[in-house]
Amino acid sequence: MNRAGTRILTINGGSSSIKFALFAADGSLIRMLEGSVERIGLHGTMLRVKGTQQADNFLRPVTAPDHTTAVEILIDWIGKRIGQDGLAAVGHRVVHGGPGYNRPQRITAEMVAELHRLSPFDPDHLPEEILLTEVFHRRFPGLPQVACFDTAFHHDLPHVARLLPIPRRYEAMGVRRYGFHGLSYAFLMEELERLAGLQTAQGRIILAHLGNGASLAAVHWGKPIDTSMGFTPAAGIPMSTRSGDLDPGLVWYLATAHGIDAKRFNEMVNFQSGLLGVSETGSDMRDLLDRESRDTRAAEAIALFCYQVKKWIGAFAAALGGLDTLVFAGGIGEHAPEVRTRICDGLGFLGIELEQKRNTANEAVISAEAGRVRVRIMHTDEEWMIANMVCTVLGIPLRKSHPHGDEKR
Given 3.40.50.300, 1.10.8.870, 3.30.420.40, 3.40.50.720, which CATH number is that of 198-377? Predict the structure, then answer.
């Protein structure tokens, strides 16, 4: 592989979008551009790009009825941007690795076959993610592709944390708590060590990744000991359109009383619930905050979200035997000070106290000096983490570097 001018493309496929970023791996990782193909298969599909060059900043309509067409459009544009032979590798975020994949690795025909077998574990993500790898293979048969699994961070959870209380025979089939947002959590832990030192990173930590998808993880000695998501990403706290944890008896009730089959139930808990289901008007926290003073349903959706996050923080503090650091990340975690305030309100008994001026200003550290727990806001970067993992797998040398500078906080 020619290491000079190495370019790495990261791909993060969703149900109706493809997020991407292009990095130069020339001793360190430098983000050249990033963007997305949005509303795939829907009216108003757009290619959005943001980069360091003026020509790399645009929003344009495209015709993409499916993911295959969308990624072909992206490949063609990238080819014009850096040349058809300009890519050294592609890194893919793969949401579910099942019980077998616990580290990033190069994609092979055998892996693709195994991911097809695992598709029932995550039918909302895996089929599209597999398809994207196959398109790149058809276009560039010799191009290395690396799978970075979102479940890998949680692979070695303590057995008591990953065991589900259902008949044992299902555990042998791979049914267990997996946990997700692992690429985000891996990045946050590396960044926490860089900013605050090894001693802090080995302490009792709760990471709260709060965005459209939202989860929490409890970490001690640098290792995850529990996480809120379970066998699928629908578990845990309420999210933008996902329900979070529900009474399993609801499945039987809705089936017998309302004729809702498994397919419709899955659609409901993944795409019609959470903030959207409770508010009945929207799934975006920003919109709900704007409306809460005049819309009871919006206010209740926000209150439920904050209440459930608070409960999980309390539960994880118990599992950790105390708490040293609380980290807020993700779109809501980073940019919604009123949500952070409501989550932390009443948690003084754990040592969590916010300094409201810092919190309102979205500063890096928002805890009061007198608080025993250090509360931080951190920007997560899954794309950088994917690119870094690609370099590790393929043996591309990098200096120890991070995407947000070298300052200590």
Answer: 3.30.420.40
